[in-house]
Amino acid sequence: AQTVTQSQPEMSVQEAETVTLSCTYDTSESDYYLFWYKQPPSRQMILVIRQEAYKQQNATENRFSVNFQKAAKSFSLKISDSQLGDAAMYFCAVPERGQGNLIFGKGTKLSVKP
Amino acid sequence: DGGITQSPKYLFRKEGQNVTLSCEQNLNHDAMYWYRQDPGQGLRLIYYSQIVNDFQKGDIAEGYSVSREKKESFPLTVTSAQKNPTAFYLCAIPQGRGTGELFFGEGSRLTVL
Predict the structure, then answer these.
(1) Inter-residue contact A76 to B10 (CB < 8 Å)
(2) Which of A101, A102, A103, A109 should be substituted to probe chain B, the one whose Cβ sees the most B Cβ atoms within 10 Å?
(3) How many Å apart are CA B87 and CA B90, to the nearest integer?
């Protein structure tokens, strides 16, 4: 069965600094996508970034980037120049085989200090 | 305005009452999903439907029921058999071609008193 593990229940970062959120997963698929979602206090789930597993190049979206290590099944999210609006829950997710849904980690609560 | 709409946003019910949460989409997607979110638990799949008139149980289907009579609608009923129904409920549809990415509604917060 596929699993997603986020080992950091809470993280804190100073405004303008960089923070990295960890995620490891297990899947039997050879070609798949990986996702990071953000859930701010409004509770709307927002896609932050996606990574195609067959691409060696790490995905980047403005201040957000990933460090994807396929062999290690690791998919960490780096947030650069942290802003107050980055404070949220962050979830790592991987597709479940054959069903079309996503399997989520338990999330990391990120606090940003001014 | 295209997208996915969940209602109500907040719902309070007495213990033992059935409650139905609405999820409507106008993006013509075949598949729809219901998740439950509890603090510290992430999102867990309750039910999903990949086509009209068909649906499948997810990981935590006990105490819930769904229907899929129309493509655009996938209502979730929280029955009195659900032992701990207080939670945040999210409905989702696929986004992106075959990537597995999901697009979520704004959610419904159910509190059972």
Answers:
(1) no
(2) A101
(3) 10
Q: Which of A44, A47, A107 sits opposite B106 (nearest CB)?
A: A44
Exposed e or buried b per residue across A48-66, where buried means at least 16 C-beta atoms within 10 angstroms of its C-beta:
bbbbebeeeeebeeeebbb
Spell out which residues of chain B touch residue A44, defining contact as CB-CB under 8 Å: 104, 106-107
Tokens of A5: 């593990």
- Contact assessment for residue B89 and residue B35, using Cβ atoms and an 8 Å cutoff: yes
% of chain A surpassing 70 pLDDT: 100
Give yes or no for a cis peptide into B8 (omega within 30° of 0).
Answer: yes
What percent of chain B has pLDDT above 90? 83
Average pLDDT, chain B: 94
Q: How far apart are CA B22 and CA B107, in angstroms?
A: 10
